[in-house]
Design goal:
Number of domains: 1
Shape: globular
Structural class: mainly alpha
Strand content: under 5%
Number of strands: 0
Helix content: over 70%
CATH class: Mainly Alpha
CATH architecture: Orthogonal Bundle
Largest sheet: none
Order of helices and strands: HHHHHHHHHHHHHH
CATH topology: ABC transporter involved in vitamin B12 uptake, BtuC
CATH superfamily: ABC transporter involved in vitamin B12 uptake, BtuC
């Protein structure tokens, strides 16, 4: 098992270096390492590394690649928690309407021009995160009214119905305010373009705090995968733990898509890959989901900006092209088994 962990970490490091080195202008790995050493440790740069190449690596590609890794890690851990808590391979924050809520918040900013009075530049991420988190709170409240036991199927169905309702409102806004429709569509497909170190410094602590907090519930997650009755017999407060974990997982997803847009399938595919390789124990599932999800997102972003010579594709389209067939194969293989 240690060998698998070490190999995965090494692949993660290689993926990040590849994401920084490869682009419209390829930069040798040795130069990438020298530029990182120069900016972090103050080491002197060789004469052949120009200021322009330094700016490309450190100011553009490095924050973009790290942001892709952090975003993939957050989404994957969120998906792993949702699948374990709700005991459903299709469960995710998107299933429960978080992405729909965040899209509605983004619609208010992009289509209607709504801005916050004190933080106008952060109106999009703040409203996107707030609406995404509010959606899961409303879904949980409705599910509790419909079913005091808060059965998993009740939560999932409530989330799906509420997501359809929010999507209808967003569609109505699209029809009424067409000026920002193209920007809104691009946001909904996800992108790391034009996001720099400030976004990395904001999102990384949020992701670390959320993942570390979720890791504290690894024993409860292990027990809950065997069924709620078994979990209750060993002293797990099902309703409390389920509520906490679903809210934290939704917060991870909401904070991520608030900055980078809606990117799907990472939270569905990565946890399945991790459980296949490392087993079902959440002491490994949580950190390895973060690592595999980060790798998947970095490679998807690399493809998005290099597969066509002069056009950058939305990263959400790449993850869907890769993730949808893979997940269909995994899902139907499980059913056949």
């Amino acid at each position: 098992m240690k060998t698998k962990i070490i190999i995965t970490i090494c692949i993660g490091v290689v993926a990040i270096l590849a994401g920084v080195a490869i682009g419209s202008i390829n930069v040798p790995i040795s130069d990438v390492l020298r530029i990182i050493g120069h900016n972090m440790l103050g080491l002197e740069l060789p004469e052949h590394i120009t200021a322009g190449r330094d700016a490309i690596v450190w100011s553009q590609r490095m924050p973009r690649t790290l942001l892709a890794f952090v975003a993939g890690a957050s989404l994957s851990v969120s998906g792993a928690v949702m699948q374990s808590v709700l005991r459903n391979p299709l469960a995710s924050s998107y299933t429960l309407g978080v992405s729909s809520g965040a899209s509605l918040g983004a619609s208010l900013v992009i289509l209607m021009g709504v801005t916050l009075p004190f933080l106008p530049m952060l109106s999009l991420p703040i409203l996107g995160f707030s609406f995404g988190l509010a959606t899961i709170l409303v879904v949980m409240a409705l599910a509790r009214q419909l079913d005091v036991r808060m059965d998993n199927h009740t939560i999932i169905l409530t989330g799906m119905v509420f997501a359809l309702f929010i999507n209808a409102i967003s569609t109505l806004l699209f029809s009424l305010f067409r000026e920002g429709a193209q920007r809104m569509i691009f946001w909904q497909m996800g992108s790391f373009r034009l996001l720099g170190w400030n976004t990395v410094l904001i999102l990384t602590p949020i992701a670390l705090i959320g993942i570390i907090f979720i890791s504290r519930f690894k024993w409860e997650l292990d027990v809950m995968t065997f069924g709620e009755e078994q979990a209750q017999t060993v002293g797990v407060n099902i309703r409390r733990v389920k509520l906490i974990l679903l809210i934290v997982a939704a917060a991870l997803t909401g904070s991520t898509i608030a900055f980078v847009g809606v990117i799907g399938f990472v939270d569905l595919v990565a946890p399945h890959v991790v459980r296949k390789i490392f087993g079902p124990a959440h002491r490994l599932v949580i950190p390895m989901s973060a690592m595999v999800g980060g790798i998947f997102m970095v490679m998807s972003d690399l493809l998005a900006r290099t597969v066509t010579p002069h056009t950058e594709l939305p990263v959400g389209a790449i993850t869907a092209i890769i993730g949808a067939p893979f997940f269909a194969y995994v899902f139907f293989s499980r059913r056949k088994g």
